[in-house]
Amino acid sequence: MSAGTPPRRAAFAACVLAAVCSTARAAAPKALAGDPDAEHFRYYYLDVHEPMFVARPDGEGSLLLETRKAMARRLERFRQPKPPGIWRVFLLGGSVAQMYDASGPGLSLRTALAAMLPGRVVEVIDCGSSGFDSVRDAVVADEVLGYSPDLLVVMSGANEERPLPPRPLAALCDSTTSRRLAAACRAIVGFNPFHRRRLRRFEANLRRIARAAAAHGVPVVYCSLPINARHLPPLGPLPFSDARFSAAWVEWERGHLEEAVRGFRRYLAAVPGDGPARFCLARALDRSGIIEEARREYLAAQPLDRPHPAQNEVLRRVARDVGAMIADLEAAFSAASPQGLIGRELMEDDVHWERTLDPLVTLVIVRAIEAAAAAGKLEGLRLDPGWTRRRGPAIEASSRRKTVSRDRAWDIFTFRMWDPIRKDRRFFAERLLALLESIEEGHPRLVEDAHGMNAWLKNRLSDNIWDDQAARTLGA
After folding, report:
1. Helix, strand or coil, per DSSP, at residue 10
2. Do 424 and 431 meet the contact criterion of CB atoms below 8 Å apart?
3. d(CA 345, CA 458)
4. Among 290, 364, 396, 470, which has the minimal tally of Cβ within 10 Å of its Cβ?
5. pLDDT tens digits for 122-165?
6. Are 325 and 372 spatial neighbours (Cβ–Cβ below 8 Å)?
């Protein structure tokens, strides 16, 4: 189905799918066990309809709410009704929110707000769920607004790729034990008919969160998100079958930058939507010192399901329209990056920043809250600005760095580099090479001999991008 699929045709397709799944359910009522695709399907399409928190009596007349165990979430606990003196914040978003240290003992959001709200006990409850997008964040917002929050912090925009069909339809797709039928059903339900309308859907979901929060009198902070556009190309193969692109690539490899730029432009004039090729043009411009044009091309190469600047502009506009606060992480990361181009100096992959940048994220969020309180937009909230004055300059200074750290190279090697292998297993992608370059910059020995881990590395690669014979030649 495309964005223009007539409603009657879409309804007919849904009925056919429901009939097929219903027949399979009657024949085999138990869902597939141990199927990772089925587990992911349940997480994204069924689990989201269940409450994120479950309650049990605490023995003192209140309820203790705890994160319901599911994939890729932090365990959080809090009491309801909210005890006196508590200032409660809920953090919503995908893995960028889940991984952000919002309540640790260091320079976290909780400790910063506690320092700025003397006499209050600050709770920051992290609802970040890996892979969640704005529509799923809106579902979570509807729930947590019933738990007496004083503030919502929203980090949406890194995963705008999955629809959220009605629960009965998703449940039918999860009911068959036939692996082929289950895969076909999940593909149909998981297909996003709004691919060309992602920005409008993103805006609608942000406005839905704002309306729900306003109905409860809860202020919202929307966070724009950074993206590593400079050093991590989009997923997809390079079009070497095209003679124009191949010729430009040869010039790039020879170091003939002017000829490479002309060649990539010639190819993109005919195929303007090729993101990986546009990244190649941006890289050649960057190497040539044509920074502003390189910036535009880097950003144009990125897909709209990631923190694209167009999404961040939508977020800023929505925040202005509804009177929400804006924590402009994109601008802060750009200011901390060489030549203003966000790259591997600050980012682990395309959307996840290095954990040592969490204090910068905290600073930007707290400054947005501080500015709104100073302008009288947060009724009755008085903040002590001493924390930002004392901590801000040092946090900003420590965020400016030029190279990949040794610890982060190890994190990329053991975790981040396997994601493009999983997604691009048909070809050896530029994305993987870019991650290997980050590893080489921060920890060259890992690339030279995997620090004594060649056997482990061969085993991982042999089932993904290399054949067995090539894997056996590693280190030869």
Report:
1. helix
2. yes
3. 28
4. 470
5. 999 999 999 999 999 999 999 999 999 999 999 999 998 888 88
6. yes
- Is the same domain home to 352 and 450? no
d(CA 26, CA 44): 24
Q: Which of 9-23, 240-254, 363-377 has the lowest mean pLDDT?
A: 9-23
Is 351:307 a contact under the CB 8 Å cutoff?
yes
User: What would the pLDDT profile of 322-347 be if each residue is shown by its tens digit?
Assistant: 999 999 999 999 999 999 999 999 99
In angstroms and rounded to an integer, the radius of gyration of the C-alpha atoms of the chain is: 24
Q: How far is CA 14 from CA 17, 20, 36, 281, 450, in A?
A: 5, 10, 24, 42, 50
The answer to whether residue 415 is domain-embedded is yes
Strands annotated E in 147-262: 151-155, 220-224
The tokens 């989201």 sit on which residue?
A: 48
CA angle 188, 168, 75 (to 5 degrees): 95
Cα angle vertex 191, ends 417, 231, to 5°? 25
**Listed residue (340, 316, 154, 155) closest to 229, CA to CA:** 340
Beginning with the edge strand found earlier in the chain, give each strand of the sheet holding 220-224 in spatial order: 121-126, 86-93, 151-155, 220-224, 325-328
- Decide: pTM greater than 0.90: no
Q: Tally the domains of the chain.
A: 4
141 and 211 belong to one structural domain: yes
For 298, counting Cβ atoms within 10 Å of its Cβ (0-12 exposed, 13-18 middle, 19+ buried), the class is buried
What are 233's two structure tokens?
């190309």
Cβ-in-10-Å burial (0-12, 13-18, 19+) of 358 comes to buried
Q: Are 155 and 96 in contact (CB under 8 A)?
A: yes
Query: pLDDT tier at 26 (50, 70, 90 boundaries)?
Result: very low
Contact, 201 vs 164, CB < 8 A? Answer: no
Same domain, 117 and 215: yes
What order of strands is seen across the sheet that includes strand 53-57?
53-57, 63-67, 77-80
The domain in which residue 296 lies consists of 243-300
Domain match, 69 and 139 both:
yes
Is the domain of 259 the same as that of 388? no
Cβ pair 185, 17 in contact under 8 A: yes
Characterize 80-118 residue by residue with b for buried, 16 or more Cβ atoms within 10 angstroms of its Cβ, and e for exposed: bebeeeebbbbbbbbbbbbbbbbbeeebbbbbbbbbbbe
Helix (H) or strand (E) holding 463: none
User: Is residue 235 situated within a structural domain?
Assistant: no
pLDDT of residue 423: 57
Q: Are residues 345 and 463 in the same domain?
A: no
d(CA 458, CA 461) in angstroms, rounded, equals 5
Residues 72 and 119 in one domain: yes
In a domain, 237, yes or no: no
